Amino acid sequence: MVGGVPADASAEVDASAPPLGEYDVVVVGSGAAGMTAALTAAKRGLSCVVVEKAATFGGSAARSGAGIWVPNNEVLLAAGVPDTPQKASAYLAAVVGAGVPAARRQAFLAHGPAMISFVVRNSPLRFRWMEGYSDYYPELPGGLPNGRSIEPDQLDGNVLGSELANLNPPYLATPAGMVVFGADYKWLALSLVNAKGLAVATAALARGTRAALLGQKPLTMGQALAGGLRAGLMAANVPVWLNTPLVDLNVEGGAVTGVVVRKDGAQGLIRARRGVIVGSGGFEHNAAMRAQYQRQPIGTQWSVGARENTGDGHRAGERAGAALDLMDDAWWGPAIPTPDSPYFCLAERTLPGGLIIDQAGQRYVNEAAPYGDVVHVMYDRNPATPCIPSWLVVDQNYRNRYLFADIAPTLPLPDSWYRSGAVVKNWSLEGLATAIGVPPAAMKATVSRFNGFARTGQDTDFRRGDSAYDHYYTDPAVIPNSCLAPLWAPPYYAFKIVPGDLGTKGGMRTDARARVLRPDDTVIPGLYAAGNASAAVMGRSYAGAGSTIGPAMTFGYVAANDIADRSAG
What we know:
Layout: E1 21-28, H1 32-43, E2 48-51, H2 59-63, E3 68-69, H3 74-78, H4 85-96, H5 102-122, E4 127-129, E5 149-152, E6 155-156, H6 185-188, H7 195-213, E7 218-219, H8 221-235, E8 240-241, E9 246-252, E10 255-263, E11 266-278, H9 287-293, H10 312-319, E12 324-325, E13 330-336, E14 343-344, E15 354-357, H11 371-381, E16 390-395, H12 396-401, H13 415-420, E17 423-426, H14 429-436, H15 440-456, E18 492-504, E19 507-508, E20 515-517, E21 523-529, H16 549-568
């Protein structure tokens, strides 16, 4: 019996195939959760192997900006961030609410700082504070307007040797010749209109030049995070088997005792003496699961998560008896469905001179709100008042001033964007409205009202600019509200906005020790989960930049330590 179900309902091990090995711990997935778990297990003296479905390592973490939200860690405290355990606890409770057990929240807050210290001491990774990147709800008790997020410092990819070729590429390539940190993008968007923006761009180019002269292969953001964790595993002699997808969990006597994988074209069993940690990512690229669990319309093509994330860990866990929670939710964000891949909007919807409208030509949300909140509003509103897709409307003044995606100000948008319908352009607001199927009079009235808010600096409809978070991706030169500027310069542009995501948020229910639970909350012996294979400790909210990766790494660390502690006991 494989996975705790009859063989005809699950994959069956080829009896003629030799076993693939036996380890203390088997980790499924080489993203931030999986590699942190494996590194922890190895440093606790446990033998470990990581199995990875893709031909590359790093998963969605490697593609990401790699913000990490972990309160009270040593990087923050060294930078003088006025954080305390009491503030962090009050803030997380206020953000998450009663939907997540207090024990899990406290486990994250208690173990997160130790995880960061552990990674710094056992890998080449170093971190830097993303100063000014506000918590997403800084006005709540314990919130910090200057933020708690950290990101990887620059890493020389040469530490990986030939393994660098196996690193999953980034979602967006760094501009050629530059070394760019996640915190730089706020300023790079303003580099033509802001002195600090120009200085940041100049510094990024200088870092790139210096790295080239030294023969380095500079990595930042998700590339640095995944590369640094992999380098730590290499130093600890932990193998990472690529092209080795999970087929099922092996269950004996009610306990998970290994994994069935496909390797070199055949199935085989890897036995786990102490435990299996599933960090296989979400199910964002599984259309059937999204249709089963999530609201319509939904599209796998709108996600920027790693394409191999098809819920393999979720399904195997469920066959082994795991309860699944939060399956209807995701790490949402407004996205533009450009032809090659979706573009996840951060600065673009927040910069002054743009507004989002529904199909009736009306604004319906604070465009600068946390990105998950914007999509929640889209889904809540869509059945009665269609807003999927919506449209981000800007003018030529906006295009002349700000970077858009990776397109420099004043430069034309790609023809393929127009051909695909991702963007529409017209010399009048009425013409633009007609082209996108929106009532012209309604859209013109909406823009006129918005322009009035821009002049007074007060958005009395949706309070854009009231929160410190709203001002992160804005233009300090715009007054009286850096979030708001009028639309007045033709031509006008409308960018199609759909509910994109960084990955799904639902997964196996776990406890404060990252152990997987059944529907009755009893523990499945030997089975742990972390990252997007588990139901998020953030519940239906999002505390700050890095609320995906911070908990993923923390609970990977917690899981491996629990196995080690149990083994020692």
